[in-house]
Amino acid sequence: MKKFKMILLLIGLVVLADFAWENRTISPSELKLFTFSLGQVPAFLLAYIALAVGWLVGWVGHAFRTRKKKRQAAAALAQKQETQ
Questions:
Q1: CB 41 within 8 A of CB 31
Q2: How does pLDDT run across 9-58, given as a tens digit for each residue?
Q3: What is the pTM of this model?
């Protein structure tokens, strides 16, 4: 199983490297956030940043949901122990 995961990881890295190589040109327009100019960045970097932000948002959402479920389970356990 470890070899399979390593092979999948290597394939993923090759795909990411190829994506970066094929999309290394600078984006045609300037990247702006509010009124600040962030300059021009390669297209692959925009995709990687979007991927990282999406992963981070998903991870934070999952952490909040897990925390909420743990609190609910602890409260239910405490209530069950009080009634006994």
A1: yes
A2: 899 889 888 888 887 777 666 777 777 777 787 878 888 888 899 999 99
A3: 0.61
